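=== Structure Prediction Worksheet ===
Name of assembly: unnamed complex
Input type: mixed (protein and possibly other molecules)
Chain count: two
Listed entries:
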Amino acid sequence: MTRNEILEIIDLKTYFFTDQGVVRAVDGVNLTIGTGESVGLVGESGSGKSMTAFSVLRLVPDPPGKIISGRILLKGEDLLQLTEKEMRSIRGKKIAMIFQEPSTSMNPSFTIGSQIEEAIRFHQGGKQSTVRDKALNLLQSVKIPDPARILTQYPHELSGGMLQRVMIAIGLSCEPDLLICDEPTTALDVSTQAQIITLLNELRSQRKTSFLFITHDLGVLSWICTFAAVMYAGKIVEYADIRSLILKPRHPYTRALIGASPRLDCDREALNSIPGAVPDLVNPPQGCRFHPRCSSATSICSNEIPTLQEEERGHWVACFARSNGKEAENA
Amino acid sequence: MALVGVIVLAVLVFVGIFAPFLAPKDPYQMEFGSSLAPLSLAHPMGTDHLGRDLFSRVIYGTRVSLLVGLGSVLIAALVGGLAGLFAGYFGRFVDIIIMRVLDVVWAFPPALLALALVAVWGPSLTTVIFSIGVVSVPQYARIVRASVLSVKEKEYILAAKASGIGPTSIIFTHVLPNVLAPLIVVATLGIATSIMIEAILSFLGLGMQPPASSWGLMISEGQKYLRTYPYYSLFPGLMIMITVFAFNAFGDGLRDAWDPKLKT
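=== Predicted Assembly ===
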């Protein structure tokens, strides 16, 4: 993986110390995002994908959470070594984040305009008139009709799709190197989802911003991402470019995920669900964390932990049964 | 309704400021021949047991009541509000220290503690305002802290953190505006309580010192004549009621104006 890296996550471990025990929410994650790339992070609820994102911004709720070890390099600079004050100048300026629920991500007490302007003024400063012009331009760039009027409105007066556009505008206000999107389309209806994704794609190609895109929707993932990592129980189990991941999934979990998503282009009676539930991260299963739910598990799976191996060029899988996977693919 | 409150308050403030010009008689002038006189044009609210014109004394009393009410609530809301903001937002040991200290204050009946404080500092308008302010601090701190606890978990606070804004500006620009509404409602009710505590202190001789006039003092003095001459307590009582109502209506209006969800 030699490319122009914006973000490099190396062996990140974020644990939660609860009364029940230590929850290994993120357990040894490695991930690299190159300039202008959009890397997806897929997984079930509780697989650690959001916590990976919060670790990058160092916003893991503490207590009980703590980043135990690892390195997070933004253009070579280790974010975990920065002071809280230095970190604040990274947040919003170099790395911005947009959230799942746009209607609660805006302060209800202020107008859209004042919130966008706050973001601009905070990191860039400038005169009131230039800041306002900038806010107007931002709203135009996210294709909001009648931006001058929207600036004077309150968050509750806008629809979810509009608010998400505003959030994207705020996220892009300081032209960050990396935009983390935490399920930005989950709370929106399907046609609005498509608009937002198209918008994000356009912005990415125009601005060369890199995306870390968190979702559990494989459809959304294939629309927007160039690479994708599949997370299960705090670990990345498969990493590949999006085409190869969707068309030739190697890991049994990825295959099960794809089997569990609805498709319009083929006749299928029922969706396959994955038996069992996400494991208890206080006492994760021995060996491969997926083996109790895996149909191709063998005895080695319950004893040893598989590591990510480059199965094919750029296609990494952490599974002992991957040779079985190949056969299944051919069959 | 809020408009009525504003108008009444404006009138009260006007009366308080221009009391010397509005009062028809000197509130300290005693006329022993006409003590406890029936209502008349000369004495629209009657006279007290020393023959002083009650109408003039009620007008002068507006000053004291408004000063005590506003002053003590201002002190309490400011100190209590800040304490609640920091305790709620930072949590942990900051929270523990601030709230336990305030619990000590909270443990005393407010009127009793105010009484003790005035007794220590010596009775005067300033000490009355300060001691009533001090005893009301925990109430505001608790209300603000409780709202902060719910507001700080909101996603827009996380979004603000994610855009690099520091804790101080998050507290004042993102948390504070969203906890103001309950604070204002409590503050308007608090003004009423403050006026009542002032009355209690005055009744016990540790509030306003005679011959100064305050509504509370007048109600207390009038108690002795309640059966034979109810006007003595009636009019100051009515004034307290009107003032409290006006502050409540005004507070409701402010809350509605600040809550964008109620704007159409």
